[in-house]
């Protein structure tokens, strides 16, 4: 395995800046790695054929003495939910097979401007609906830790790409945990920024009030570097915040250096433990909390009484918004078109296209959402769910009046086997129990690897949540935990992942 | 299309009370669309004024046009509405190929303006206050062209083309409360109401308000209820129909009258009215059934999660209030005085819906009298013959130019009518028509004198009469001269010269 691909994004960036490695070499190394292992992992739906050209241009600019961004020349995997002009964007759906967008998502545009090299589009559950990538129309992604297990979802492709060293950085989107849960099960870092911190323009919408784009990486610092590139106000997204943001990378560096844990008030969410949580997940989590305490953090148990309704509320709000967001896939202007035998009216063509083009989970949620918004049911379903959402926001407000950060296991279990939850949507949905509350409240959350579960040797992550706009706090605390654990282990967790077919 | 049975209008009014309600859509003339930076232009090539937002492409997001919000607030204030300190967009979900996202961004339970009224003056002098329930912002849909059918409608078409240039054009929908008490004036009230809305938006400068282009569209709701004896409570409201495709002031009036007569015939025959949209046919003067519409139509409205609430500051609202033009009723009183028209003359202008045209013609340099003469005269005549709006035929600038040519003596009335006809036929500006058709009056006295001398010489008896002081006899000579000049002479000048030469 090439040393280049083992580097962190920060490490690679430094070597690029020092001209020890060229962007072409860095890109080629990752393309080679994809070629070597992706037939096993299937993290990518499309690999760029213009990445080397883009890398060459970065090298030329660097040679010309141009001032480039800190990540210039670093390869980037892009979740297929984000539209790109040079690669198809399918959102994991057959209905968008081969779809070429006339514009780049704002985050992709910013990444290109910062000199990052998009090397491919990563697999995902169709339209980001799922927790395992088993709902991708193009076949599942496999977890690099155990190819018989799921890599999480919906952003399993991005997490697996990073875990399998196919890319040092990836972009994900998180509607109910689609960045954090895959990070948890693949031993990587995933951040869902504050709602509005990163532009949604060009992210194919699942549930507009919940979706947030964020970084998927192997280290907290790398995530910070990437959020610094993609974050900030976008006039094309009305819900994007106009705040001036501090550097997340700087916060991560500060956290890794030392004593940010001293006196930090940490709340352990009472409702996110116990029943339904795998023993080994709970063990690693409890150990990490004890470590925090040892470092001088004040740990208290915090109750968030309405979290128990979060999954229910989420599975009304999400399908409701999704049923409307997905209405545009009707074959009239773009995407797949299915003609019924003998032609048919526009209505029949729309119906045939949607019948053929959408997978079963998408149809399930469209039907749920359509029902939840229907006259006579709106108040009971969508209306009530919005009230629960308000109550959950109040739970967060009350908790953050007491503590600086909240912590929980990022998901109740380690990576499960393919097919294990496919026939039981409720079991699948419950895998997001820990991550959903942050989306409902708009608060930021990060998942940081904290070890392997003793019973199955699979990765476990801790979720840290902070108040709205306090993303930097996540990076400080996350980097501190990462540094402590790595010091304790004497290695990174990801270095223990299987080598795969890489030669 | 089977012909509907119609009841005599007066008879219908004897038996039933018409109850009205209007939804007027006003297209705002902002530079860009409601939620995207695509140009808001009419008449461009199909699908050229579009962005990913107008086309509902994956990943695109709407951004509210601030100017459209300002215009909507101004309109709300001009309608006497309260402006909501916080209003919200909502999604109205339904599948239709002219709707790129298959939902329309509109406002639902939280409109930007609510609770106003508009004073309307009817041709018979009656004043009616029309209650306004709300005015809300929304985006227009694209335009479908159905090809292959005989009617141009979707039924029977082989295929349809979609133009998304109009998709996302900012609209304000003005919804009235239920209007009672219109009685036999219902058709006139409908027309006067729409004309008043048009006057308001034109005076605000927020819309081109050209009905024939769809800048201003009226959906007319009407129901009938049987009259009850004096002292008895009113009957419950009848089932309503909503007539669409009413593209001129004239058709608003005609459509209401038609629906009253049609519904009355059905009800008197013991039938029931179907709640539905009706499609107005300008050519036949009838309505036909559109799609059934029930109150249970389920658009699955929910708050638009891609947009923040609209929260105009109190300062902005007051700034816009201070900048409002005078209300139409006041403006009418002022203009009547300024223009010096008699009651009858002014009523003519108002009934013709020509206030705006005359204002603009006067602004372009014509005298009020000349402007009135041409608009209520020749132009309205041509409009009536062709069943179109006078305003759609010719621009106020061109009318003023014709008036100026008359004033300067270059045209007489007869020639001016021909020039107008040429302008309306699209032959160019008045001067271009004059040049192309060679219509200018002969102002060369030499040519006139030669013609006069010849006419006098050929009519010695007339010459004798004129010399005897019977000046009116000159008419015959003047007629002959005008004929010889093919009408292209100033009759007043010819008369002067005839008398001069006869006195010789």
Automatic annotation (TrEMBL), chain A:
Q: Which Pfam families match?
A: Amidase
EC number per UniProt? 6.3.5.7
What SUPFAM superfamilies does the annotation carry?
Amidase signature (AS) enzymes
Tell me, which GO biological process terms does this entry list? translation
Keyword terms: ATP-binding, Ligase, Nucleotide-binding, Protein biosynthesis, Transferase
What family does this belong to? Belongs to the amidase family. GatA subfamily.
What is the designated name of this protein?
Answer: Glutamyl-tRNA(Gln) amidotransferase subunit A
Organism listed in the record: Mycetocola miduiensis
What is this organism's lineage? Bacteria, Bacillati, Actinomycetota, Actinomycetes, Micrococcales
TrEMBL record, chain B:
Which reaction is the catalytic activity of this chain?
Answer: L-glutamyl-tRNA(Gln) + L-glutamine + ATP + H2O = L-glutaminyl-tRNA(Gln) + L-glutamate + ADP + phosphate + H(+); L-aspartyl-tRNA(Asn) + L-glutamine + ATP + H2O = L-asparaginyl-tRNA(Asn) + L-glutamate + ADP + phosphate + 2 H(+)
Q: Which residues cross the membrane?
A: none
Q: List the Gene Ontology MF annotations in alphabetical order.
A: asparaginyl-tRNA synthase (glutamine-hydrolyzing) activity; ATP binding; glutaminyl-tRNA synthase (glutamine-hydrolyzing) activity; transferase activity
Question: What are its E.C. numbers?
Answer: 6.3.5.-
Which keywords does this chain's UniProt record carry?
ATP-binding, Ligase, Nucleotide-binding, Protein biosynthesis, Transferase
Enumerate the spans annotated as Asn/Gln amidotransferase domain: 356-502
Write out the GO biological process terms: glutaminyl-tRNAGln biosynthesis via transamidation; translation
Task: Spell out the Pfam families in the cross-references.
Answer: GatB_N, GatB_Yqey
Give the source's domain of life in one word.
Bacteria
- Alphabetized InterPro entries for the sequence: Asn/Gln-tRNA_amidoTrfase_suB/E (IPR017959), Asn/Gln-tRNA_Trfase_suB/E_cat (IPR006075), Asn/Gln_amidotransferase (IPR018027), Asn/Gln_tRNA_amidoTrase-B-like (IPR003789), GatB (IPR004413), GatB_Yqey_C_2 (IPR023168), Gln_synth/guanido_kin_cat_dom (IPR014746)
Q: Which family does the record claim for this protein?
A: Belongs to the GatB/GatE family. GatB subfamily.
What is known about its subunit structure?
Answer: Heterotrimer of A, B and C subunits.
Main role? Allows the formation of correctly charged Asn-tRNA(Asn) or Gln-tRNA(Gln) through the transamidation of misacylated Asp-tRNA(Asn) or Glu-tRNA(Gln) in organisms which lack either or both of asparaginyl-tRNA or glutaminyl-tRNA synthetases. The reaction takes place in the presence of glutamine and ATP through an activated phospho-Asp-tRNA(Asn) or phospho-Glu-tRNA(Gln).
Q: Which NCBIfam families match?
A: gatB (TIGR00133), PRK05477.1-2 (NF004012), PRK05477.1-3 (NF004013), PRK05477.1-4 (NF004014)
Q: Please identify the protein, giving its name as recorded.
A: Aspartyl/glutamyl-tRNA(Asn/Gln) amidotransferase subunit B
Which organism does this record belong to?
Mycetocola miduiensis
Name of the coding gene: gatB
